[in-house]
Amino acid sequence: MAYDYDPELASWADRLAPVDYTDPLAARAAVRAIAGRRPAYQPLGSVEEFDATAPGPDGAPPVRLRVHRPARRGTEPGPGLLYLHWGGFVCGDVDAIRPTVQRLADRTGAVVVAVAYRLAPEHPYPAGLDDAYAALCWTAEHAADLGVDPARLGVGGESAGGGLAAALALLARDRGGPALRFQCLMWPELDDRLETVSARSFTDTPKWNRACAQASWGFYLGPRHRPGANEVPPYAAPARAPDLSGLPPAYVCVCEYDPGRDEAITYAHRLIQAGVRTEIGYYPGTFHASVSVAEAAVSQKMLADQTDALVRGLRGAPPGEPASRTPHTGPDGRTSA
């Protein structure tokens, strides 16, 4: 299939082969190599970095976190952002996204907490999401120590991490957990059914294609759930959630030649229809995570737009004023306020 890539991305398309997610060990080695070649981010200001751990859910191991805290003027708390890494649910860690979270902390002024959630297939759903929720609760509980205003706390992520961020927003809403001010979903992985036009058509796209998505969902859902089956929970695949009302405002970034394009656009439209303030960033000529071609103007625009959306979205309520919450019934039948 011929693709009309952005001219600055076209020369890279053949060189950015997708990771083989059918072999998790090989995929992890490939991701480590990719991450090792990424240039370090040079912050405009000072960004403090330290590791922490959150208690694991229900007796599971502690969740490893890496906190990126920018220098701020004054003593007033600022925004916070829990950020979830990419990797098809089977690979990646806080090291792989270090330049990304450093950039976000530096450019948005938010304290960014990266989460080393458990990976499939060894730890299928709901392990990764449970770890993310434990990390969110830890961040909210330690907001004062971190310099975070709990009324200005958001979640975000890329690819699988974007899907986890969307699921985390659903889970926090339905459990009455920490109130979220914003969700930032970058080319998110949301729908295990893979029935959209883009999911069926993009079998040979750079970095991520239909085969990658199929392997990813198979490992993440594990032996208890078959991708595409009716019983797949909405917290595993947020596109299945019947009710998106009461969720935090969202920014959804979409790449044109991405198998996940249509599910991301549909999810954004459903958020809007549910009364959730939502902004869609759609970038013609791009492919999944094409921001890795950093010198391309469209990549720079995508990152600048993400930064702008986060700065606006995390302004939040004044210190001490809680974010509003809407009473609601979740997909598990429980009602929360």
Automatic annotation (TrEMBL):
Region described as Disordered: 312-337
Keywords, alphabetical: Hydrolase
Keyword Hydrolase: yes
Entry keyword Phosphoprotein: no
UniProt domain Alpha/beta hydrolase fold-3: residue ranges: 81-289
InterPro entries per record: AB_hydrolase_3 (IPR013094), AB_hydrolase_fold (IPR029058), GDXG_lipolytic_enzyme (IPR050300)
SUPFAM superfamilies: alpha/beta-Hydrolases
Source species taxonomy: Bacteria, Bacillati, Actinomycetota, Actinomycetes, Kitasatosporales
Gene Ontology MF terms: hydrolase activity
Organism: Streptomyces luteolus
Protein name, entry field: Alpha/beta hydrolase
Gene3D superfamilies the record matches: alpha/beta hydrolase
